[in-house]
Design a protein that fits this description.
Blueprint (H helix, E strand, L loop, with lengths): L1 E9 L3 H12 L4 E5 L16 E5 L3 H6 L3 H4 L4 E3 L1 E6 L9 E6 L9 E5 H13 L4 E5 L3 E6 L4 E5 L4 E9 L6 H5 L4 E17 L6 E6 L5 E9 L2 E11 H8 L3 H11 L8 E2 L4 E10 L3 E2 L2 E3 L5 E2 L7 H15 L8 H30 L3 H16 L1 H12 L3
Parallel strand pairs: 1-2, 1-11, 2-8, 5-13, 11-19
Antiparallel strand pairs: 3-7, 4-7, 5-6, 9-10, 10-11, 12-15, 12-16, 12-17, 13-14, 14-15, 17-20, 18-19
Helix pairs in contact: 1-4, 1-8, 8-9
The structure holds flavin-adenine dinucleotide (FAD).
Length: 396
Amino acid sequence: MRDETDILISGGGVAGLAAACAFGAAGYRVTCVEPQPPVTEAEAEGSDLRTTAFLHPSIPVLEAAGLWARLAPHAAALQIMRIVDAGGVEARPRVVKDFDAADLSDKPFGWNLPNWLLRREMLARMAELPNVRFLAGVATASVLTRASEVLVTLSDGSRHAAKLLIGADGRGSLVRQALGIEVKTLRYGQKALAFAVSHPVPHDNISTEIHRSGGPFTFVPLPDAGGQHRSAVVWMDHAAEIDRRLALPATEFAAEMQARSCDLLGELTQISRLTAWPIIAQIAARMAGERTALMAEAAHVMPPIGAQGLNMSLADLTALLELATPANLGDAAMLAAYHRKRHWDVEARVRGIDLLNRASQIGAQPLRDLRAATLNAMYSIAPLRRGLMRAGIGVR
Ligand SMILES: Cc1cc2nc3c(=O)[nH]c(=O)nc-3n(C[C@H](O)[C@H](O)[C@H](O)COP(=O)(O)OP(=O)(O)OC[C@H]3O[C@@H](n4cnc5c(N)ncnc54)[C@H](O)[C@@H]3O)c2cc1C
């Protein structure tokens, strides 16, 4: 027997869960399929300790999904993005530039939240929606598309017919492969370490990106807790260096972390375990195929610089919600419009972040000096500075 639904979402990562809440709140029948039952506590084995900075263009879709009211009480505002060049001979800040959201409007750039908490709140929201089903512990196994519907077989053998299949199943997307959509992948030989720290100096809602070589070391503000100031850290470097640090005794790791942070927030105390993430950039040749839309990392992956990844995923979701009606859901015209609306922006952002990442990786001293001079020059031209901030958060 086959099950019938409006939308089948393959993948219950943060992007797939957000899509399930948003389409559920819009009244569609939704089935979301996820092989790994989501981990919803920070300290539990396998929890996702990364944080996501939601830039303000992402907030309306979270509101429409009925999620923002749940998330806002846990969020830390991002008012200033501070770029620090510490690429001189000594590992000390030599150029410090503050990109202040007040230059653009009275809103902060965005709000930062831990990924494990996003999963917890998204699952709770889905449970309120009787038209949304979440199937944890099963995977999409095969996909057969026709002009009128898509047939999906899951790993438990069950068969599901839907008007629209959303591939939100990550960078190795089975849905994308089943549709024969090619990807272009750029490899940097880098990894990112993600963890949380407490520190004596308040972060003042400033996200700080420190550039030296190998990749940025970034502090992202978290709300204070237990009387302590706290930040999330994303530390990118050559993969071999990250692997070496993962194997260090705690005291030696702490000393390297302290030196790389240039002491900007005082003495750091690591308050979570370390998780390591391989860094690539990847872009799918098309955002859609027959009866199928790709979103999030199934369609685009980029290094975690400038808080772009999940915000682009929510831009995908916003476009899908705007284009879909009960009458045209998943038809060829709707999906062609989705590809046109998103692909150009996705390509431009992947290219932009690729450039920034390569600049941050630079090892040779003369090129690091050139990077610092370029930051100084770009910052000093006010219209260019504001233009870069607008492009970064995705507003005009
Ligand atoms: C260190 C780091 C920091 C980051 N910081 C930010 C930030 O500040 N702001 C931001 O916007 N972005 C950030 N990003 C990017 C952001 O985390 C990702 O864009 C986002 O988590 C990806 O979400 P996703 O749901 O597409 O992918 P995933 O989280 O990989 O989810 C895909 C899901 O699909 C499931 N799946 C796989 N195969 C199948 C199958 N066959 N059937 C069904 N399901 C399947 C997987 O189990 C998984 O749960 C960061 C990334 C990294 C690496």
